[in-house]
Amino acid sequence: MKVSEVPKDDANVLEGKTSFVQYAIDDKGHYVQEKSPGFQPQNIALEQAWEEVDENIAVAAELVERKEKSPIYFFMHREIMDAKILSEYVGISKWKVKRHFKPNIFAKLNDDILREYAVVFKLDNIDELKKFDINKWK
Amino acid sequence: MEIEKIDFNHKISAHCENGVTANLLNYYGIELSEPMVFGIGAGLFFTYLPFIKLNGAPVTSFRPMPGAIFRRINKSLGIKIFSKRFPSKPKQAMAMLDSLLQKGIPVGMVVGVYNLTYFPAPLRFHFNAHNIVAFHKKDGNYLVSDPIMENEEWISAEDLESVRFAKGTYKPKGKLYYIKEVPQQLDLKKAIKRSIKYNSIMMVKAPGPVIGVSGIRLLARYINMWPKKYDKKRAARNLGSVIRMQEEIGTGGAGFRFLYAAFLQEAAAIFNSEELETYSQLMTTIGDKWRDFAVNSARVVKNRPVNNETYYSVSQQLLEIADMEEDIFKKLFKLKLK
Protein backbone atom coordinates (compact mmCIF):
# COMPACT_ATOMS: atom_id res chain seq x y z
CA MET A 1 0.00 0.00 0.00
CA LYS A 2 1.34 3.38 -1.02
CA VAL A 3 0.83 6.43 1.19
CA SER A 4 -1.55 7.80 -1.44
CA GLU A 5 -3.63 4.61 -1.18
CA VAL A 6 -4.21 4.78 2.57
CA PRO A 7 -8.01 4.76 2.87
CA LYS A 8 -9.74 7.98 3.92
CA ASP A 9 -13.28 6.64 4.33
CA ASP A 10 -14.63 8.54 7.30
CA ALA A 11 -17.84 7.06 8.74
CA ASN A 12 -17.26 8.72 12.12
CA VAL A 13 -16.27 5.40 13.64
CA LEU A 14 -13.71 7.18 15.83
CA GLU A 15 -15.96 10.15 16.68
CA GLY A 16 -13.09 12.53 15.96
CA LYS A 17 -11.28 11.27 19.07
CA THR A 18 -8.35 9.63 17.29
CA SER A 19 -7.16 8.14 13.99
CA PHE A 20 -6.20 4.73 12.72
CA VAL A 21 -2.47 4.34 12.15
CA GLN A 22 -1.49 2.64 8.91
CA TYR A 23 1.94 1.75 7.56
CA ALA A 24 2.45 2.53 3.89
CA ILE A 25 5.31 3.12 1.47
CA ASP A 26 6.36 6.61 0.38
CA ASP A 27 7.77 7.70 -3.00
CA LYS A 28 11.19 6.30 -2.16
CA GLY A 29 9.79 2.90 -1.17
CA HIS A 30 10.28 3.48 2.57
CA TYR A 31 7.65 2.52 5.10
CA VAL A 32 6.14 5.45 7.01
CA GLN A 33 3.18 5.99 9.35
CA GLU A 34 0.07 7.50 7.83
CA LYS A 35 -3.14 8.30 9.68
CA SER A 36 -6.53 7.22 8.41
CA PRO A 37 -10.10 7.99 9.53
CA GLY A 38 -11.34 4.58 8.34
CA PHE A 39 -11.62 1.99 5.60
CA GLN A 40 -14.91 1.33 3.85
CA PRO A 41 -15.04 -2.49 4.22
CA GLN A 42 -14.43 -2.04 7.93
CA ASN A 43 -17.15 0.60 8.14
CA ILE A 44 -19.58 -1.75 6.39
CA ALA A 45 -18.72 -4.67 8.68
CA LEU A 46 -19.06 -2.49 11.76
CA GLU A 47 -22.42 -1.13 10.60
CA GLN A 48 -23.58 -4.69 10.05
CA ALA A 49 -22.52 -5.68 13.57
CA TRP A 50 -24.48 -2.78 15.10
CA GLU A 51 -27.51 -3.63 12.95
CA GLU A 52 -27.45 -7.10 14.47
CA VAL A 53 -27.32 -5.60 17.97
CA ASP A 54 -30.23 -3.25 17.21
CA GLU A 55 -32.23 -6.11 15.77
CA ASN A 56 -31.68 -8.21 18.91
CA ILE A 57 -32.77 -5.29 21.11
CA ALA A 58 -35.93 -4.78 19.04
CA VAL A 59 -36.84 -8.47 19.26
CA ALA A 60 -36.19 -8.46 23.02
CA ALA A 61 -38.39 -5.36 23.45
CA GLU A 62 -41.22 -7.11 21.65
CA LEU A 63 -40.92 -10.23 23.79
CA VAL A 64 -41.03 -8.13 26.96
CA GLU A 65 -44.04 -6.22 25.71
CA ARG A 66 -45.83 -9.49 25.02
CA LYS A 67 -44.94 -10.56 28.60
CA GLU A 68 -42.95 -13.53 27.32
CA LYS A 69 -39.68 -12.23 28.78
CA SER A 70 -38.74 -10.06 31.75
CA PRO A 71 -37.10 -6.60 31.49
CA ILE A 72 -33.79 -8.25 32.44
CA TYR A 73 -33.81 -9.93 29.06
CA PHE A 74 -34.28 -6.59 27.33
CA PHE A 75 -31.49 -4.80 29.23
CA MET A 76 -29.16 -7.73 28.67
CA HIS A 77 -29.45 -7.23 24.92
CA ARG A 78 -29.16 -3.51 25.31
CA GLU A 79 -25.75 -4.10 26.93
CA ILE A 80 -24.79 -6.45 24.05
CA MET A 81 -24.55 -9.32 26.52
CA ASP A 82 -25.64 -12.92 26.51
CA ALA A 83 -26.71 -14.93 29.56
CA LYS A 84 -23.10 -16.02 30.20
CA ILE A 85 -21.56 -12.53 30.29
CA LEU A 86 -24.51 -11.17 32.27
CA SER A 87 -24.20 -13.94 34.85
CA GLU A 88 -20.50 -13.11 35.27
CA TYR A 89 -21.19 -9.41 35.71
CA VAL A 90 -23.99 -9.83 38.28
CA GLY A 91 -22.33 -12.78 39.97
CA ILE A 92 -25.39 -15.00 39.69
CA SER A 93 -25.20 -18.43 38.07
CA LYS A 94 -26.22 -18.66 34.44
CA TRP A 95 -29.19 -20.98 34.98
CA LYS A 96 -30.58 -18.59 37.60
CA VAL A 97 -30.10 -15.62 35.27
CA LYS A 98 -32.02 -17.52 32.62
CA ARG A 99 -34.82 -18.18 35.12
CA HIS A 100 -34.95 -14.44 35.79
CA PHE A 101 -35.91 -13.96 32.13
CA LYS A 102 -39.30 -15.49 33.01
CA PRO A 103 -41.81 -12.75 33.92
CA ASN A 104 -43.44 -14.71 36.77
CA ILE A 105 -40.09 -15.47 38.42
CA PHE A 106 -38.82 -11.95 37.80
CA ALA A 107 -41.89 -10.56 39.61
CA LYS A 108 -40.84 -12.38 42.79
CA LEU A 109 -37.21 -11.19 42.82
CA ASN A 110 -36.19 -9.24 45.89
CA ASP A 111 -34.78 -5.71 45.74
CA ASP A 112 -31.20 -6.79 46.51
CA ILE A 113 -31.01 -8.93 43.42
CA LEU A 114 -32.70 -6.24 41.34
CA ARG A 115 -30.12 -3.75 42.60
CA GLU A 116 -27.31 -6.00 41.35
CA TYR A 117 -28.90 -6.04 37.92
CA ALA A 118 -29.55 -2.29 37.97
CA VAL A 119 -25.83 -1.61 38.60
CA VAL A 120 -24.75 -3.82 35.70
CA PHE A 121 -27.36 -2.22 33.43
CA LYS A 122 -26.29 1.26 34.58
CA LEU A 123 -29.85 2.13 35.68
CA ASP A 124 -30.54 4.95 38.13
CA ASN A 125 -32.73 2.80 40.39
CA ILE A 126 -34.59 -0.51 40.52
CA ASP A 127 -37.86 1.12 39.53
CA GLU A 128 -36.54 1.11 35.97
CA LEU A 129 -36.82 -2.68 36.28
CA LYS A 130 -39.89 -2.93 38.51
CA LYS A 131 -41.98 -0.38 36.64
CA PHE A 132 -40.41 -1.10 33.28
CA ASP A 133 -41.62 1.21 30.54
CA ILE A 134 -40.60 0.14 27.06
CA ASN A 135 -41.44 3.53 25.55
CA LYS A 136 -38.67 5.12 27.56
CA TRP A 137 -36.04 2.95 25.89
CA LYS A 138 -37.24 3.01 22.30
CA MET B 1 -1.00 10.56 49.13
CA GLU B 2 0.73 12.60 46.48
CA ILE B 3 1.82 10.72 43.38
CA GLU B 4 4.28 12.40 41.08
CA LYS B 5 3.67 12.31 37.35
CA ILE B 6 6.00 9.92 35.56
CA ASP B 7 7.71 11.45 32.55
CA PHE B 8 6.15 9.00 30.08
CA ASN B 9 6.13 9.56 26.35
CA HIS B 10 2.74 8.63 24.86
CA LYS B 11 2.78 7.57 21.21
CA ILE B 12 -0.13 6.40 19.10
CA SER B 13 0.26 3.10 17.25
CA ALA B 14 -1.56 0.73 14.91
CA HIS B 15 -1.92 -2.05 17.47
CA CYS B 16 -2.32 -1.64 21.22
CA GLU B 17 0.10 -4.30 22.37
CA ASN B 18 2.87 -3.05 20.05
CA GLY B 19 2.23 0.46 21.25
CA VAL B 20 2.28 -0.31 24.96
CA THR B 21 5.44 -2.39 24.51
CA ALA B 22 7.21 0.26 22.42
CA ASN B 23 6.22 3.06 24.82
CA LEU B 24 7.32 1.10 27.90
CA LEU B 25 10.66 0.10 26.33
CA ASN B 26 11.15 3.69 25.26
CA TYR B 27 10.72 4.82 28.86
CA TYR B 28 13.62 2.55 29.81
CA GLY B 29 15.81 3.95 27.05
CA ILE B 30 15.23 1.30 24.40
CA GLU B 31 14.01 3.00 21.25
CA LEU B 32 12.34 0.60 18.88
CA SER B 33 9.78 1.42 16.18
CA GLU B 34 6.34 -0.19 16.23
CA PRO B 35 7.21 -2.49 13.28
CA MET B 36 10.41 -3.59 15.08
CA VAL B 37 8.45 -4.39 18.25
CA PHE B 38 5.86 -6.26 16.21
CA GLY B 39 8.49 -8.21 14.26
CA ILE B 40 10.66 -9.17 17.21
CA GLY B 41 7.50 -9.99 19.14
CA ALA B 42 6.58 -12.36 16.26
CA GLY B 43 3.14 -10.79 16.07
CA LEU B 44 2.02 -12.11 12.71
CA PHE B 45 -0.50 -14.85 13.21
CA PHE B 46 -3.63 -16.45 11.86
CA THR B 47 -6.16 -18.82 13.29
CA TYR B 48 -9.65 -19.89 12.33
CA LEU B 49 -11.72 -21.80 14.88
CA PRO B 50 -14.91 -22.97 13.15
CA PHE B 51 -16.46 -24.49 16.27
CA ILE B 52 -15.85 -21.65 18.71
CA LYS B 53 -18.42 -18.89 18.36
CA LEU B 54 -18.07 -15.28 19.41
CA ASN B 55 -21.27 -13.22 19.14
CA GLY B 56 -22.71 -15.96 16.95
CA ALA B 57 -19.90 -16.03 14.39
CA PRO B 58 -16.95 -18.45 14.30
CA VAL B 59 -13.68 -17.04 15.62
CA THR B 60 -11.12 -15.66 13.19
CA SER B 61 -8.02 -14.11 14.71
CA PHE B 62 -5.10 -12.31 13.11
CA ARG B 63 -3.22 -11.80 16.36
CA PRO B 64 -1.52 -14.19 18.73
CA MET B 65 -2.83 -14.66 22.28
CA PRO B 66 -3.00 -11.40 24.21
CA GLY B 67 0.33 -10.75 25.89
CA ALA B 68 2.30 -12.92 23.46
CA ILE B 69 4.05 -10.04 21.67
CA PHE B 70 5.13 -8.43 24.96
CA ARG B 71 6.36 -11.75 26.30
CA ARG B 72 8.28 -12.70 23.17
CA ILE B 73 10.06 -9.41 22.68
CA ASN B 74 11.19 -9.32 26.29
CA LYS B 75 12.40 -12.89 26.11
CA SER B 76 14.27 -12.27 22.85
CA LEU B 77 15.98 -9.14 24.16
CA GLY B 78 16.65 -10.39 27.69
CA ILE B 79 14.37 -7.85 29.37
CA LYS B 80 13.02 -8.85 32.78
CA ILE B 81 9.33 -8.25 33.35
CA PHE B 82 6.86 -8.71 36.16
CA SER B 83 3.24 -9.60 35.55
CA LYS B 84 0.40 -10.53 37.84
CA ARG B 85 -3.31 -11.29 37.75
CA PHE B 86 -5.69 -10.72 40.66
CA PRO B 87 -8.63 -13.12 40.30
CA SER B 88 -11.61 -11.56 42.16
CA LYS B 89 -9.32 -9.22 44.12
CA PRO B 90 -10.01 -5.78 42.62
CA LYS B 91 -8.93 -3.89 45.76
CA GLN B 92 -5.53 -5.56 45.71
CA ALA B 93 -5.20 -4.97 41.97
CA MET B 94 -5.81 -1.24 42.42
CA ALA B 95 -3.58 -1.00 45.51
CA MET B 96 -0.66 -2.58 43.69
CA LEU B 97 -1.12 -0.17 40.79
CA ASP B 98 -0.98 2.78 43.20
CA SER B 99 2.11 1.54 44.99
CA LEU B 100 3.93 1.02 41.67
CA LEU B 101 2.99 4.53 40.49
CA GLN B 102 4.22 5.82 43.84
CA LYS B 103 7.59 4.23 43.09
CA GLY B 104 7.65 5.93 39.70
CA ILE B 105 7.05 2.79 37.65
CA PRO B 106 4.74 3.04 34.60
CA VAL B 107 2.30 0.13 34.69
CA GLY B 108 0.87 -1.82 31.76
CA MET B 109 -2.63 -3.23 32.17
CA VAL B 110 -5.00 -5.43 30.22
CA VAL B 111 -8.52 -3.98 30.03
CA GLY B 112 -11.89 -4.56 28.37
CA VAL B 113 -13.09 -1.82 26.02
CA TYR B 114 -16.84 -2.11 26.63
CA ASN B 115 -16.84 0.20 29.64
CA LEU B 116 -13.75 2.18 28.63
CA THR B 117 -15.30 5.62 28.89
CA TYR B 118 -12.98 7.62 26.62
CA PHE B 119 -12.97 5.02 23.81
CA PRO B 120 -14.94 5.75 20.59
CA ALA B 121 -18.45 4.35 21.18
CA PRO B 122 -18.80 2.53 17.81
CA LEU B 123 -15.83 0.33 18.78
CA ARG B 124 -17.01 -0.54 22.26
CA PHE B 125 -17.93 -4.22 22.16
CA HIS B 126 -17.15 -6.80 24.85
CA PHE B 127 -13.53 -7.11 23.77
CA ASN B 128 -11.09 -7.82 26.59
CA ALA B 129 -7.58 -7.86 25.19
CA HIS B 130 -6.84 -4.17 25.10
CA ASN B 131 -3.63 -2.76 26.61
CA ILE B 132 -2.94 0.59 28.26
CA VAL B 133 -0.27 2.11 30.51
CA ALA B 134 -1.00 4.16 33.64
CA PHE B 135 1.62 6.74 34.60
CA HIS B 136 -0.03 9.24 36.93
CA LYS B 137 -2.79 9.51 39.51
CA LYS B 138 -4.42 12.71 40.64
CA ASP B 139 -7.62 13.38 42.61
CA GLY B 140 -8.76 9.77 42.22
CA ASN B 141 -8.25 9.77 38.45
CA TYR B 142 -5.57 7.99 36.46
CA LEU B 143 -3.68 9.38 33.50
CA VAL B 144 -3.24 6.62 30.94
CA SER B 145 -1.45 6.14 27.65
CA ASP B 146 -3.77 4.21 25.34
CA PRO B 147 -1.86 3.54 22.09
CA ILE B 148 -5.07 3.67 20.06
CA MET B 149 -5.81 7.22 21.21
CA GLU B 150 -4.20 10.33 19.80
CA ASN B 151 -3.60 11.85 23.26
CA GLU B 152 -3.24 10.77 26.87
CA GLU B 153 -6.58 10.15 28.57
CA TRP B 154 -7.96 10.45 32.12
CA ILE B 155 -10.04 7.68 33.65
CA SER B 156 -11.66 7.51 37.07
CA ALA B 157 -10.53 4.89 39.60
CA GLU B 158 -13.99 3.33 39.56
CA ASP B 159 -14.04 3.04 35.75
CA LEU B 160 -10.49 1.72 35.62
CA GLU B 161 -11.30 -0.96 38.17
CA SER B 162 -14.35 -1.95 36.16
CA VAL B 163 -12.46 -2.35 32.85
CA ARG B 164 -9.61 -4.20 34.54
CA PHE B 165 -12.19 -6.69 35.78
CA ALA B 166 -14.25 -6.88 32.60
CA LYS B 167 -16.18 -10.11 32.07
CA GLY B 168 -16.64 -12.30 29.02
CA THR B 169 -14.05 -14.03 26.83
CA TYR B 170 -10.38 -13.62 27.96
CA LYS B 171 -11.15 -11.95 31.29
CA PRO B 172 -8.22 -9.66 32.16
CA LYS B 173 -8.59 -10.40 35.91
CA GLY B 174 -6.83 -7.18 36.79
CA LYS B 175 -3.66 -8.19 34.98
CA LEU B 176 -0.84 -5.68 35.27
CA TYR B 177 2.77 -5.80 34.11
CA TYR B 178 5.90 -3.70 34.19
CA ILE B 179 9.54 -3.79 33.17
CA LYS B 180 11.89 -4.74 36.00
CA GLU B 181 15.26 -4.63 34.34
CA VAL B 182 16.74 -3.97 30.93
CA PRO B 183 20.11 -5.36 29.82
CA GLN B 184 23.10 -3.09 29.19
CA GLN B 185 23.48 -4.32 25.64
CA LEU B 186 20.87 -5.49 23.21
CA ASP B 187 21.63 -8.13 20.64
CA LEU B 188 19.12 -6.88 18.08
CA LYS B 189 20.45 -9.04 15.25
CA LYS B 190 20.09 -12.24 17.21
CA ALA B 191 16.58 -11.27 18.31
CA ILE B 192 15.53 -10.51 14.72
CA LYS B 193 16.89 -13.80 13.40
CA ARG B 194 15.16 -15.80 16.11
CA SER B 195 11.85 -14.02 15.75
CA ILE B 196 11.72 -14.48 11.96
CA LYS B 197 12.29 -18.20 12.50
CA TYR B 198 9.68 -18.36 15.24
CA ASN B 199 7.08 -16.47 13.22
CA SER B 200 7.73 -18.67 10.17
CA ILE B 201 7.14 -21.75 12.30
CA MET B 202 3.81 -20.31 13.51
CA MET B 203 2.70 -19.58 9.97
CA VAL B 204 3.80 -22.70 8.06
CA LYS B 205 4.90 -25.38 10.49
CA ALA B 206 2.34 -25.28 13.28
CA PRO B 207 0.61 -28.65 13.62
CA GLY B 208 -3.10 -29.04 13.00
CA PRO B 209 -5.52 -27.38 10.57
CA VAL B 210 -6.41 -24.15 12.40
CA ILE B 211 -3.17 -22.15 12.73
CA GLY B 212 -1.15 -20.23 10.12
CA VAL B 213 -1.62 -20.83 6.40
CA SER B 214 -3.54 -24.05 7.14
CA GLY B 215 -6.01 -21.89 9.06
CA ILE B 216 -6.35 -19.50 6.12
CA ARG B 217 -7.12 -22.44 3.82
CA LEU B 218 -9.61 -23.81 6.35
CA LEU B 219 -11.38 -20.44 6.47
CA ALA B 220 -11.47 -20.41 2.65
CA ARG B 221 -13.19 -23.80 2.62
CA TYR B 222 -15.72 -22.70 5.23
CA ILE B 223 -16.50 -19.39 3.47
CA ASN B 224 -17.34 -21.38 0.38
CA MET B 225 -19.78 -23.48 2.44
CA TRP B 226 -21.55 -20.64 4.25
CA PRO B 227 -24.11 -19.74 1.54
CA LYS B 228 -25.17 -23.41 1.34
CA LYS B 229 -25.21 -24.02 5.08
CA TYR B 230 -26.79 -20.80 6.38
CA ASP B 231 -29.47 -18.34 5.39
CA LYS B 232 -28.38 -15.17 3.64
CA LYS B 233 -28.20 -13.08 6.80
CA ARG B 234 -26.14 -15.51 8.87
CA ALA B 235 -23.70 -16.13 6.01
CA ALA B 236 -23.24 -12.39 5.50
CA ARG B 237 -22.73 -11.88 9.23
CA ASN B 238 -20.05 -14.56 9.35
CA LEU B 239 -18.18 -12.90 6.51
CA GLY B 240 -18.67 -9.48 8.09
CA SER B 241 -17.11 -10.79 11.28
CA VAL B 242 -14.01 -11.89 9.32
CA ILE B 243 -13.65 -8.36 7.92
CA ARG B 244 -14.08 -6.85 11.37
CA MET B 245 -11.40 -9.08 12.84
CA GLN B 246 -9.18 -8.25 9.87
CA GLU B 247 -9.57 -4.51 9.90
CA GLU B 248 -10.65 -3.42 13.34
CA ILE B 249 -8.33 -1.78 15.83
CA GLY B 250 -5.87 -4.14 17.40
CA THR B 251 -6.92 -7.15 15.43
CA GLY B 252 -4.57 -7.25 12.50
CA GLY B 253 -5.06 -8.65 9.01
CA ALA B 254 -3.88 -6.47 6.19
CA GLY B 255 -2.51 -3.89 8.60
CA PHE B 256 -0.38 -6.57 10.23
CA ARG B 257 1.10 -7.61 6.86
CA PHE B 258 2.17 -4.02 6.23
CA LEU B 259 3.63 -3.84 9.72
CA TYR B 260 5.58 -7.01 9.06
CA ALA B 261 6.74 -5.65 5.69
CA ALA B 262 7.96 -2.51 7.48
CA PHE B 263 9.75 -4.73 10.01
CA LEU B 264 11.46 -6.72 7.23
CA GLN B 265 12.52 -3.45 5.64
CA GLU B 266 14.09 -2.19 8.87
CA ALA B 267 15.75 -5.57 9.35
CA ALA B 268 17.08 -5.40 5.77
CA ALA B 269 18.88 -2.17 6.66
CA ILE B 270 20.32 -3.67 9.86
CA PHE B 271 21.64 -6.77 8.10
CA ASN B 272 22.35 -4.92 4.85
CA SER B 273 20.40 -7.69 3.14
CA GLU B 274 18.88 -7.24 -0.30
CA GLU B 275 17.03 -10.49 0.19
CA LEU B 276 15.12 -9.12 3.18
CA GLU B 277 14.23 -6.00 1.20
CA THR B 278 12.76 -8.25 -1.52
CA TYR B 279 10.73 -10.15 1.08
CA SER B 280 9.51 -6.85 2.48
CA GLN B 281 8.16 -5.91 -0.94
CA LEU B 282 6.56 -9.32 -1.31
CA MET B 283 4.90 -8.93 2.08
CA THR B 284 3.53 -5.55 0.94
CA THR B 285 1.96 -7.28 -2.06
CA ILE B 286 0.38 -9.85 0.29
CA GLY B 287 -1.00 -7.01 2.44
CA ASP B 288 -2.54 -5.48 -0.66
CA LYS B 289 -4.17 -8.83 -1.47
CA TRP B 290 -5.71 -8.95 2.02
CA ARG B 291 -7.08 -5.46 1.42
CA ASP B 292 -8.62 -6.55 -1.89
CA PHE B 293 -10.15 -9.50 -0.08
CA ALA B 294 -11.73 -7.10 2.46
CA VAL B 295 -13.09 -4.85 -0.31
CA ASN B 296 -14.65 -7.76 -2.21
CA SER B 297 -15.99 -9.44 0.94
CA ALA B 298 -17.64 -6.18 1.98
CA ARG B 299 -19.44 -6.11 -1.37
CA VAL B 300 -20.66 -9.67 -0.78
CA VAL B 301 -21.83 -8.63 2.70
CA LYS B 302 -23.71 -5.68 1.25
CA ASN B 303 -24.93 -7.93 -1.56
CA ARG B 304 -23.77 -5.43 -4.12
CA PRO B 305 -21.31 -7.31 -6.30
CA VAL B 306 -19.46 -5.14 -8.81
CA ASN B 307 -17.27 -7.78 -10.44
CA ASN B 308 -19.38 -10.86 -9.70
CA GLU B 309 -17.92 -11.29 -6.22
CA THR B 310 -19.38 -14.30 -4.48
CA TYR B 311 -18.49 -16.42 -1.47
CA TYR B 312 -16.71 -18.73 -3.88
CA SER B 313 -14.62 -15.98 -5.46
CA VAL B 314 -13.52 -14.46 -2.14
CA SER B 315 -12.61 -17.91 -0.86
CA GLN B 316 -10.43 -18.37 -3.96
CA GLN B 317 -8.73 -15.08 -3.14
CA LEU B 318 -7.92 -16.42 0.32
CA LEU B 319 -6.41 -19.58 -1.15
CA GLU B 320 -4.15 -17.43 -3.31
CA ILE B 321 -3.07 -15.46 -0.21
CA ALA B 322 -2.41 -18.71 1.67
CA ASP B 323 -0.14 -19.93 -1.16
CA MET B 324 1.80 -16.64 -1.15
CA GLU B 325 2.21 -16.66 2.62
CA GLU B 326 3.29 -20.28 2.62
CA ASP B 327 5.92 -19.49 0.02
CA ILE B 328 7.33 -16.42 1.77
CA PHE B 329 7.47 -17.97 5.25
CA LYS B 330 9.09 -21.17 3.98
CA LYS B 331 11.80 -18.99 2.45
CA LEU B 332 12.09 -16.80 5.54
CA PHE B 333 12.46 -19.92 7.67
CA LYS B 334 15.46 -21.07 5.62
CA LEU B 335 16.98 -17.60 5.33
CA LYS B 336 20.55 -17.32 6.62
CA LEU B 337 21.35 -13.87 7.97
CA LYS B 338 24.75 -12.60 9.00
How would you explain this protein's 3D organization?
Chain A is 51% helix and 9% strand. With 138 residues, chain A is mainly alpha-helical. Chain A starts with 19 loop residues before the first strand and ends with a helix. The mean pLDDT of chain A is 95. Chain B contains eleven helices and eight strands. The radius of gyration of chain B is 21 Å and the shape is globular. Chain B has 338 residues and is of the alpha+beta class. The chains are: A mainly alpha (138), B alpha+beta (338).
Element layout with pairings:
The complex is a heterodimer of chains A (138) and B (338).
Chain A: E1 20-25, E2 31-36, H1 40-65, H2 71-78, H3 83-90, H4 94-99, H5 103-107, H6 111-120, H7 127-130, H8 134-137
Antiparallel strand pairs in A: 1-2
Helix pairs in contact in A: 1-2
Chain B: H1 16-27, H2 34-40, E1 47-54, E2 57-61, H3 68-77, E3 80-84, H4 90-102, E4 107-111, E5 130-138, E6 141-145, E7 153-156, H5 157-164, E8 176-181, H6 188-205, H7 213-229, H8 232-247, H9 254-271, H10 274-302, H11 311-334
Antiparallel strand pairs in B: 1-2, 3-8, 4-5, 4-8, 5-6, 6-7
Strand arrangement in the largest pleated sheet of chain B: 3-8-4-5-6-7
Beta-strand residue fraction of chain B:
5-15%
Low confidence ranges of chain B: none
**Class from helix and strand fractions of chain A:** mainly alpha
What's the gist of this structure?
Chain A is mainly alpha-helical and 138 residues long. Chain A is built from 8 helices and 2 strands; from the N terminus they run ββαααααααα. In chain B, the strands form 2 sheets. A 6-stranded antiparallel beta sheet of chain B has the order 3-8-4-5-6-7, sandwiched between helices. A two-stranded antiparallel sheet of chain B has the order 1-2.
